[in-house]
Design a protein that fits this description.
This protein is of the alpha/beta class. The chain contains 16 helices and 21 strands. The N and C termini lie close together (12 Å).
């Protein structure tokens, strides 16, 4: 058996921890089966290579004709408001339980008042808003009120779309959403046995109509017929998601003969291959219906990174930096008692310029990477750590936080906490850090756990997930 890299070993252990004894019921590929599946994927990608354009660190297969909503998602300019957590569909692949009406929520924040949500969008500069659930049409008046509030406040500056299974959609609701200024409606027709009658109500009324469904392997031939039908109906975009396993849908998914892959979460290998084959089918047939394959690694990496990038600038210190992956990088040395006075005196002007800062309680001198050469001359052990930011409705009392007012009556807080334990930089890691700061380094998997931690927190990994 090939030795796992630290990253793959961490994925495997986390996957085992998530499913406990149920993990033993899952079918993972042997090394030979994984290699065969990887070869099949590469064959498809090679066949379509000249007709697609990769994007978002090569985790999204074709970005030539993304909907504006998908483009904003990839750019980290999107807020998803879950209007409720209650759904009238019975999709076997649904990853979460949908049985609670709840309150409109995003990123731990709840918004009873649409105006507070508008102020949240304004404060953090979002350019896109999606109304999701659950099923938004279960709470239609509430969904409509949020669409109206956002469009009245921002007009064309903020692109708004709504997800629905369409079961409760009527001509009257389409008209109301159109009047409110809804830019795009997305249908999960997998919830309705792939019926398209409700899509017909939206086409020609809502400016952009998209179908967004998981790539279900056993439905591949049916989906080919649906691609032709959706194109004829005038649907603008088709989005395929990669199916993922969760504790909630476990019992439904294991009824099917799927092969799973370890990763950031447990994914269905056949789902990805189905999506890619359907992209190739559409291109080969010359069907002008843009297909966006939303791989789980794209969603997990880019959406989480975008979330961190929105919050980190609010709490980063002048002597720290936010990485490409949205973590706050902190460099520091520990000052021995006998050197404290002399070092602080020597660096006094740099501290005054906020290129360094001393924490006397911990005897830690944080410093900006601009003065790395000066700090190296101190010949002290050097440490690197990463912090992550989170937004909450109020302080938890656990971590350092900054209050962020949304308006005169409403505020949120952004907390920061260590993402990993500090890494003491040996000569190899210090050289790696200098290459990183000089822009000479890009993401790569590493055999060293510490170097892998640096890679993971600095960069968004490249490419689709590896099967194993």
């Amino acid at each position: 058996m090939n030795r796992l890299t630290p990253l793959k070993e961490r994925h495997l252990l986390r996957n085992q921890e998530e499913y406990q004894v149920k993990y033993n019921y899952l079918k993972f590929p042997s090394p030979e089966e994984a290699a065969t599946a990887m070869q099949e994927r590469q064959a498809i990608l090679s066949a379509i290579e000249s007709r697609i354009k990769w994007g978002f660190h090569n985790s999204k297969v074709d970005v030539t004709k993304l909907s504006k909503g998908c483009q904003l998602c990839g750019e980290g300019q999107w807020s998803c408001l879950f209007i409720n957590n209650l759904c009238n569909g019975k999709c076997f692949y649904c990853p979460t339980q949908q049985t609670d009406l709840g309150k409109p929520q995003t990123n731990t924040l709840t918004f009873d008042d649409p105006q507070n949500y508008v102020d949240y969008i304004r404060r953090f500069g979002f350019k896109g808003v999606s109304i999701s659930g659950g099923e938004p049409l279960v709470s239609f008046e509430k969904s409509l009120a949020f669409v109206q509030a956002v469009k009245e406040a921002f007009g064309d500056e903020v692109y708004v779309w709504l997800y629905t299974n369409g079961i409760l959609l009527t001509e009257e609701k389409v008209a109301a959403l159109k009047q409110a200024g809804l830019n795009e409606m997305r249908f999960d027709i997998g919830a309705t046995e792939y019926k398209t009658d409700k899509i017909r109500l939206a086409v020609g009324q809502i400016p952009v109509v998209t179908v967004e469904i998981p790539a279900v392997p056993q439905e591949e031939e049916l989906l080919k017929d649906k691609i032709r039908e959706l194109h004829q109906l005038g649907v603008n975009h088709l989005n395929f998601h990669q199916m993922r396993l969760t504790p909630y849908n476990f019992n439904q998914l294991i009824e099917h003969d799927y092969t799973y892959s370890h990763g950031e979460k447990v994914m269905v290998i056949e789902s990805e291959l189905t999506a890619l084959r359907l992209i190739q089918f559409t291109l080969d047939e010359g069907i002008d219906l843009p297909i966006n394959y939303c791989s789980f690694v794209y969603k997990n990496r880019h959406q989480k990174s975008a979330n961190r990038m929105k919050h980190a600038p609010q709490v980063v210190k002048p002597w720290e930096r936010v990485t490409e992956n949205g973590f706050i990088r902190r460099l520091f040395v520990k000052l021995p008692v006998e050197q404290e006075a002399a070092v602080l005196a020597e660096l006094d002007s740099l501290i005054e310029q906020q290129l360094a800062f001393y924490y006397p309680q911990k005897r830690e001198l944080s410093f900006h990477h601009y003065i790395l050469d000066e700090i190296k001359q101190l010949a002290l052990p050097m440490f690197l750590e990463y912090h992550v930011s989170h937004i909450f409705p109020q302080e938890t009392g656990i971590n350092e936080f900054d209050p962020i007012p949304l308006n005169e009556e409403c505020q949120v807080v952004i907390e920061r906490r260590p993402a990993i334990l500090p890494i003491e930089l040996n000569a190899e890691m210090l050289q790696l850090l200098e290459e990183l700061l000089d822009g000479q380094l890009s993401y790569q998997e590493a055999d060293s756990k510490a170097i892998q931690e640096i890679m993971t927190h600095e960069f968004i990994p490249e490419g689709l997930g590896e099967y194993h």
